Amino acid sequence: MKSDRTKKLQKLDKALVWHPFTQMKEWAAGDTLIIEKGQGNYLIDTDGRRYLDGVASLWVNVHGHRKKEIDKAIVSQLGKLAHSTLLGLGNTPSIELAERLVKIVPKGLNRVFFSDNGSTAVEIALKMAFQYWEQKGFEGKRKFVAFTGAYHGDTFGSMSVGEIDIFVKKYRPLLFSAFRAPYPYCYRCPVGKDRSDCKTECLKAFEDILKKHSGEIAACIIEPMLQGAAGMIVSPPGFLKKVRSLTKKYGVLLIADEVATGFGRTGKMFACEVEGVVPDFLCLAKGITGGYMPLAATLTTDKVYRAFLGKYEEYRSFFHGHTYTGNPLGCAAALANLDIFENERVIEGLEPKVELFKKLLQRFEGLAHVGEVRQIGLVAGIELVKDKKTKEPFPAKSRVGYRACLRMRDSGVILRPLGDVVVIMPPLSIKESELKKIVEAAYKGIKEITEKP
Ligand SMILES: *Cc1c(COP(=O)(O)O)cnc(C)c1O
Asked: E strands, 176-324, where?
């Protein structure tokens, strides 16, 4: 039963709060869920009902909610300082965090620029790459090459390199243009190959762009190993490594957007490690604080950094900075997050969970409307299609992915789809029994919604 308090909150929410990426007409007509507490891998609503947090509070939560060590670190930092600016001053936690980050990221990325969300982490990398070439005397290198289906955030720069039509189409007239290379969405291969005869031929188009236009291109931006918002699309072995070697060959900087993949999601601390790649820029956000505070970081090399040095009046500084850059509470949470990774040997402990996850997911292939199941580490995308043979999608208005996820709430599991791709992305702290429960709820929800006569 719903309490009067819940009803009142629902009403106020509908009257006042504009939700992101949401058709508010549908929201206002629906039965909305309001979360009040978290505990471990569960979210708890205003009436005390518990739900497994199957998408890690939109890909950010790492060690569960109310994690003692992170709670404590924030409270302890609060006893010293909540915020002080990095413009003209240093602060303790940001220095300590920079030192820790440099130690764990791919070698050579030893300059850390803080901001407060994934989109800004990307904007910063784009601006730095652009300004780098300009200050090195290559004014012609002003463009970017990005991939089909890319998602890099919602600000104008990050939208410009993004390519999910329903997100960016409306704003296209305001965006700068980028070169676009095909991403290996292998289920619908851009060059008509099969997995069995794939030699990453899709890279030819990428190399052609570099060959022809490298004199105009500042950087390439990629979501390494896993395109998130495009529908959890995992790149085939060797793809990322070849992108790195081609960008090197043609003198184009590489920006790795690990906003979603960073901090253990793919089974390694960073997705770049899966293929031993070192980018020129690494963008981090989402999991950096364990899902606690808005914090982001853009890391780059000394080589890039040095191009920004000079006399004050030469104006070679990096002209960028957000008010909450390097926020001490966020940095304290991030430090505690990294401590937990170390103390609980989180990465080492992932393997059996990932193996179980893989096994549990096999069943879905048997469902009448599951086109493909994609998985890497502790993330999976289950693509629902109207016709498995032709891969024809369901019509958008039938809202199949959305309805399947709503159904899962009856089983006490919160998932959120990307179109008709059902996403499972629990906190890394998910227990095996909880993982089974999430997958079971997803199976049931998908079956009931897609096979209903
Ligand atoms: C979420 C995401 C972003 C944007 O991060 P925000 O914090 O939402 O601005 C950028 N890139 C990738 C790959 C993401 O998944």
From this structure: 179-181, 217-222, 226-227, 233-234, 253-257, 281-284, 296-301
At 336, list the tokens.
């505690």
Q: Quick one: which atom of ligand 1 is closest to the CA of 155?
A: 9
Centre of ligand 1 from the C-alpha of residue 259, in Å: 5
Per-residue pLDDT of 223-262, as tens digits, reads 999 999 999 999 999 999 999 999 999 999 999 999 999 9
With a 6 Å cutoff on the Cβ, whether 152 touches ligand 1 is yes
Report the distance separating Cα 352 and Cα 378, nearest Å.
Answer: 11
**Cβ(289) – ligand 1 distance below 6 Å:** no
**84 and 328 Cβ atoms separated by less than 8 Å:** yes
| Distance from chain centroid for Cα 100 | 21
Say if residue 110 is exposed, middle or buried (CB neighbours under 10 Å; 0-12, 13-18, 19+): middle
Q: Which atom of ligand 1 is nearest to the CA of 260?
A: 15
Cβ atoms of 200 and 275 closer than 8 Å: no
- Which domains, from first to last, does the chain contain? 33-62+347-451 (3.90.1150.10), 71-343 (3.40.640.10)
Please determine, for residue 90, whether its predicted confidence score (pLDDT) is greater than 80: yes
Token match 């890394």: residue?
428
What is the pTM for the complete model shown? 0.98
CA distance 368 to 394: 13
Cβ–ligand 1 contact at 116 (below 6 Å): no
Nearest in space to 46 (alpha carbons), one of 1, 14, 5: 5
Category of 89 on φ-ψ map: left (φ > 0), alpha (ψ -120 to 50) or beta: beta
Ligand 1 centre from 123 Cα, in Å? 11
pLDDT tens, position by position, 347-404: 999 999 999 999 999 999 999 999 999 999 999 999 999 999 999 999 999 999 999 9
Contact 306, 316 (CB under 8 A): no
CB of 228 shorter than 6 A to ligand 1? yes
203-226 core/surface letters (b: 16 or more CB in 10 A; e: else):
beebeebbeebbebbbbbbbbbbb
